[in-house]
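## tool: complex_structure
## caller: assistant
## args:
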Amino acid sequence: MAKATVSLPQGTRDFSAEVVRKRNYIFNTIRNVFELYGFAPLETPAMENLETLMGKYGEEGDKLIFKILNNGLDNPAKHEQIRTDFEKVLEGKNIKTITERALRYDLTIPFARYVAMNYGQLTLPFKRYQIQPVWRADRPQKGRYREFYQCDADVVGSTSLLNEVELANIYATVFEKLGVDVEIRINSRKILAALAEICGGSDKLTDITIAIDKLDKIGIEKVKEELAQRGLDETQVTTIEKYLAISGSNEEKLAAAKALIGETELGKAGLEEIEYVLNYITPDFRLSTFDSRLTIDFTLARGLNYYTGLIFEVKANGVQMGSIGGGGRYDDLTGLFGVPNVPGVGISFGVDRIYDVMEELKLFPETVHTGVKVLFFNLGDQESKTAFGLMQQLRANNIGCELFHEATKMDKQFKYADKKQIPFAIIIGSKELEEGTCVIKNLAASEQKTVLQSELIKEFS
RNA sequence: GAGGGUGUAGCUCAGUAGGUUAGAGCGACAGUUUGUGGCACUGUAGGUCGUGGGUUCGAGACCCAUCAUUCUCCCCA
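## result:
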C-alpha cells in the first residue's frame, strides 16, 4: 500500500464518530443551559474584515490572527502595484490590496461588530449566545489548537450586576451537569486599577497586571523583581506584595482588601461588585456545591484588554490544563465600531479543553454512544428482501437499524455488529423465511428468541 | 518569537558499542468452523526505518540540513 502523503494543517484535527458524539454532548449541555437562561443564538461568518479584528487583542493577539490572502493577485495588470505593496507586508504592515480579510480570532469582537451594525433593531438588554470555531496562529501544545470552538454568552445594554450573577450561575450549572469539578475565580479590573492608582498611577496598570498574573508560575520573588524592572519603587512593590499575600476565605480576602485599597473610589467600587455577586449566592440561589467553587482571586488579571469590571476565569481541578473558560465586563466594546456607551458582559467556554479534561478524568457517560439499535443479518437474496421490508418498518417506528451489505458468513456479520456496538441482531435464514419468523439476538447477553415477523415491532417498542 | 523531545508495519512501540535476511504486540485478511460472534490455534499480507546529503568497508543507529509532529516558555480557550 502506498503511504499516504496527505496531512492536516498544524494544530487542526479530524473528529471521528465517537469524538463528535462526545463533543456534541458538551455542546448540547452548554446550549441547553444558555437557552434556559434566556440567551438567543447568533452565528457570524468565519471571516471578518481584517480591520475589524486588528488592534482589538493587543500586540500579541494581532500576530496570531490568520490573514487571508486576496484573490486575483496573479492579474498581470496589477503586478507592479502588488510588488510595491508586498514590500510593506514584509515590513509587517497590513495592506488591503494583499490581504483584507481574516479568520475570526474570538467570538466577542464579531459580536460587538454585529451589535454596532444592528444597534437600532436590538431589544435591550440583548442576550446572545454563539457556538462556533475560532482560529489562532498559535504554536500548538497541550490544550492549545489552531482551530477550536468557543461557546460565548454575552449581555449588552445593561450595567446590572445581576447579569454577572446569572453568568456565574451558567458556569456553575454547565460544569455541574458535565460533572467537571471546577473553581470559578472572580476579580475586578477596578480593584487592579485601584492598586495601580496607589502604586504610582493608572499608567502602571498594564505593567502591574502583567507581572502579578504570573504569580502562580514564577513566585513572589520573581514578581517583585519584574515590578522593580518595570519602574516601581520599594514602597510600591511592598504594597503589591501585601496585596498578593491576601488569603483565606472570601470574607477574609474582602476584609483584607478593604484595608488596603478600600479608601480609593475604584477599589471601593470593585469590592462592592464582588460582594454583590457573592451575596446573591444565598442558599436559595446556589447549586449544591456552588459556593465552594466561586472564589475571589485578586491575582486574576486576564489578558484581553477590553475588560473593565468583574472578570471570571474557570479552571478544572485535578488536572493540568490552562483555563477552560473566561470572561468579564467591558464598558464600551462597540465604541470601537462607532456606537459608544453600550456596556456588556460575557463569558466563554473552551470546548476543546473541556473535552480534554473530561477525557483525562474519564467523565463521559456511557450513554454518549448512540448508534443504530439493530443489525439485520444478510443470509441470501430472498432472506435479505424480507429483512429489508422489516427494517423499513422498524425505521418508520423510529428504531435505527441497518442490513448487512452482503450475504456472507455470519461470523463476519457478528463482528461488524460488535465493532459498531450494535446491541441486537435479527437473523432471517431459509428456515425463518419459511415460517414467517425471525430470530432476535441480544448480543451482549448472548440470548436469543424466535418471534413472528408480524410481531417484530412490538418487541422493540 | 525562544528552547527541548520524537519520527521504524494500519496502530503502539522494540531494535542493545554502527555488522549480514529490520522485529513484537494489537489490528486486517484467510483458515480450523458452507446458519450463531467475542476465546484459542494456524497461516497470509503489509516497511525505499520522515526526506536529502555526509562519515564509514558497512548506517534504522553517528554528523549536517530539511520537513512533520509533540511539549515547555511567551500568550491564551
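## assistant note: Residues 17-36 of chain A form the longest helix (20 residues). Chain A has two domains: 17-66+105-360, 370-459. Handing back to user.
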